[in-house]
Amino acid sequence: MTDKKLFYYPSNASMAPHMVLEEIGRPFELVLVDRNHNEHKSAEYLRLNPNGLIPVLADGDLVLYETAAICLHLADTSPESALAPKLGTPARAEFYKWLMWLTNTLQSALIVYFYPERWVDVGNVAGVDQVRAHAESKIGTLLEQLEQQLQSSGGPWLLGDQYSILDPYAFMLCRWTRGFAKPARERALLGQYLQRMLARPAIQRVLKTEGLAAPFV
């Protein structure tokens, strides 16, 4: 029995908390929200997340949405897993910076890339193409920031020696670039980093459970 339920869809933004839950190793339940049938827009799901977005974490009486918030909650309520630096330390401040950057900057740019029609008038095909192209270019510069962070931290993880919830989050976002002209895997340090991530048993379990096929990144 478990009090934790993760409402998910394969390779969606729920993938990061799914990987975090697997790292923690405590029992949890996965609840599929079928986007193909617009279940994320159903009245039942909207009672959990009025934004109609995936994921949602139900943890006892707590219902939480926003991927970064879910991952942070999981880290804070499982301190034995050491998935975040200690409170009040400079490392924790760096951790907050990168978590906010991943969700507010890189993920936001990826959303623009995948849904460019949201930023132009209906039927503006040329505008859609232009928005997508600019988004891909912007994402390329952001991936270079991740590359530089791996270099400055000394690796093997984004914060250096400590594996944290930043790593599943970054892995998920890098995975979303696999169809780009220059995906994350083609950068020297990021490519090695993604292979290290793929070698983790928790990541392998998520890929299998979500039924994902190669290329994984």
What would you note in describing this structure?
The chain is α+β, with helices and mostly antiparallel strands and 217 residues long. It has helices at residues 15-24, 43-46, 67-76, 90-114, 125-153, 166-175, 188-198, 201-209; strands at residues 4-8, 29-32, 56-59, 62-65. The protein has a 4-stranded mixed beta sheet, with helices on one face. Helix 4 runs antiparallel to helix 5 (125-153). The longest helix is centred in the middle third of the chain and has 29 residues, at 125-153. The two termini are 33 Å apart. The model has no long low-confidence stretch (mean pLDDT 97).
Jot down its keywords.
single chain, 217 residues, Glutathione S-transferase Yfyf (Class Pi), Chain A, domain 2, 50% helix, 2 domains, globular, 8 helices, Glutaredoxin, alpha+beta, four-stranded mixed β-sheet
Topology:
Elements: E1 4-8, H1 15-24, E2 29-32, H2 43-46, E3 56-59, E4 62-65, H3 67-76, H4 90-114, H5 125-153, H6 166-175, H7 188-198, H8 201-209
Parallel strand pairs: 1-2
Antiparallel strand pairs: 1-3, 3-4
Helix pairs in contact: 1-3, 1-6, 1-8, 4-5, 4-6, 5-7
